Structure formats: C-alpha cells, structure tokens
UniProtKB/TrEMBL annotation:
Organism of origin: Hungatella effluvii
Entry protein name: Succinylglutamate desuccinylase/Aspartoacylase catalytic domain-containing protein
Keyword match Zinc: yes
InterPro entries membership: AstE_AspA_cat, N-alpha-Ac-DABA_deacetylase
UniProt-listed Pfam families: AstE_AspA_cat (PF24827)
Keywords recorded for this protein, A-Z: Hydrolase, Metal-binding, Zinc
Domain Succinylglutamate desuccinylase/Aspartoacylase catalytic: 33-210
GO terms, molecular function: hydrolase activity, acting on ester bonds; metal ion binding
Necessary cofactors: Zn(2+)
Keyword Ion transport belongs to the record: no
Length: 312
C-alpha cells in the first residue's frame, strides 16, 4: 500500500512528496512488530534502491509469510535522487544534517519532522547509505559506541562484512539514525558500494540479511540464510591512508584485499611529465575496506582505510 509520508508545495506548481510502501498481513491483530527500511537521504547514493526493489518483490510474492509491518522508504530525498544531487537541490543542504527538524522551520526542516513522526514507534529501522563517488566501501554497519550494546546483536544478522563502532565524537547528532535512536527507535546505518552506482551482489546480500533481522523480530516467517559472521572494529586498529601530493591515483591492490604493513597500495602519478609522485603504502597489516574510486586526488585526499588485526 503506497502512502504519502510528507508533501510540501514548491515553486511553479510543483510538490516535494515522499512516499513509502507499507506491507502488512491481511488480518491484523494489533500486536505486530514494525520495521522501517530507509534509503535515498543522499540523492547520489543509489545502492539502497536495489534493496528496496528486492524486498518489495520478495514480500509481494510471499505475502502470506509476512507477520508484521514493513515500511519501505526508497527516496527520502526524491529531488536529490531525480537530479543525482547529494543534498536537496534548490536548498543547498545535506538532508542528513537537519534531523529531528522543526515543524515551524524551513521546508527541509518541516519535512524532517514529518519523517521522524512517521517512523516513530517502529521496533527497528535500517538506514541504507552508499559511499560517495570518490570511495568504494565494503558492505558494513556503522553505529556509535553508545548504542553498540543494544544494536550489535541485530546488526550481526544483516549479512555484512564488517561492523564499525564509532567513538561518540564521530557521531553527528543531526543525522536521522541518531535522532531515531534518541527517541527510542533502534536504528543501524548500513554503508556499501560507491556513489551513483548499484553493486548488485551487496544489494542481494543485504536483502537476505534484512530478512534474517525480520525473522528475529517476528515479522517474517519465510526461509532465511545463515548470515555471514561480520568482523567488528573492537580491539582493531584502523589505518587511514591519505595522499601527500596531488595527481592521479592508480591502485595496485584490490578493494577488500589483504595488505601487509608497508606494502604498496598504489601510486600517485603525474600525467604531465610521466613521473611517479608518490608510492602509497599501508600503515598496518589488514584488509582494505575503503579504497579510492575516483582517480584525481589532492593533498590530504583519503586513499584507503585498512582494518588491522585484533590487538594491533
């Protein structure tokens, strides 16, 4: 059942309208659990679109196995998705920096409040993001240290490669996930792939993981897989690799590859004179879970993140 979450008037007789698809049992008892699947807050992050499609398809084809309420929000920033713009076009604002919003605020703040109200009361929320056009990420869950104890058992069901528990200082209080966790809706953030692209394998894996989570919550009675056991950031050093010069980055390691400390990850080249400006090496031994996708780099550009072994 397609429902309107929020709708506001724009210039030239246009409207900004956010929709969701609600899937629920034909006979309701009033005690059903509810899960919300959210994506498209950033208009250039399209990985979640395929997850929404797959979930809708599976639940439609096996509707008799749905025992709870599933709300699927494929485009929280529809103007951004339509124009391939990260923020909300025309407002020059990052939508994931204005929650919980304000009923009396500007258009985007008003929309943010309506989104919060619509999701409020849910038993769980999965907020799906992609990377930007510059970096490729493995399939991962991100959460704050303050919510890890509550969220980790559920996050491990999502069939991801990695769970990154951030320090409190890195968590932005104006994000949707932080706002929902604060108001009592357990919410995890999933990040994967690269901006403006869809990585089908990641989408299929996450869909299977969401079905596992739904089964744990009592929302789904269909078949599920045994989810992959993810690595976590606990007691692991994360090596950050930045460019020390400007040029063209050419990787010599594969994304998700294993690298030794001091081993070459790639080179920064100067196309003008045919020289190598910098050999980029890993500071730790481990797995490359973030790798530069866009070749042009400046001094300080992030090249890679490497997940070190336990106890490093």
């Amino acid at each position: 059942m397609i429902e309107t979450v929020a709708s506001v008037g724009l210039a030239i007789d246009e409207r900004l309208t956010i929709f969701k698809n609600r899937i629920q049992p034909e006979k309701m008892t009033g005690n059903e659990k509810r899960i919300c699947i959210v994506t498209g807050i950033h208009g250039d992050e399209l990985e979640g679109q395929y997850v929404c499609y797959e979930l809708n398809r599976i639940l439609r084809e096996q509707k008799e196995r749905v025992k709870g309420i599933v709300d699927i929000y494929p485009a929280m920033n529809p103007l951004g998705v339509d124009s391939i713009t990260r923020g909300v076009p025309g407002f020059d604002i990052d939508m994931n920096r204005i929650f919980p919003g304000s009923e009396e605020g500007a258009v985007t703040e008003h929309i943010a409040t309506q989104i919060m109200e619509d999701i409020s009361g849910a038993d769980f929320c999965v907020d799906i993001h992609a990377s930007n056009i510059f970096l490729r990420e493995i399939l991962q869950v991100r959460m704050s240290e303050g919510t890890a104890e509550q969220l980790l058992p559920y996050a491990k069901l999502l069939n991801t490669d990695f769970i990154w528990v951030h320090g409190a200082a890195t968590v932005l209080e104006s994000t949707l996930a932080h706002g929902l966790n604060t108001c009592g809706v357990p919410t995890v953030v999933v990040e994967m792939g690269v901006g403006m692209r869809i990585t089908k394998s990641y989408g299929l894996r996450l869909t299977e993981g969401i079905l596992c989570l739904m089964k744990r919550l009592g929302i789904w009675e269909g078949e599920t897989i045994a989810p992959k056991e993810p690595m976590t950031s606990d007691n692991r050093k994360i090596g950050l690799v930045h460019a020390n010069t400007a040029g063209i980055f050419l990787p010599s390691m594969e994304h998700q590859g294993i690298v030794r400390a001091g081993e070459r990850i790639g080179e920064i080249l100067n196309p003008l004179d045919g020289t190598v400006l910098e050999t980029v090496v890993s500071p730790v031994e481990g797995m490359i879970f973030t790798l530069r996708e866009y070749p042009v780099v400046s001094n300080g550009s992030l090249i890679a993140r490497v997940l070190g072994g336990e106890g490093e």
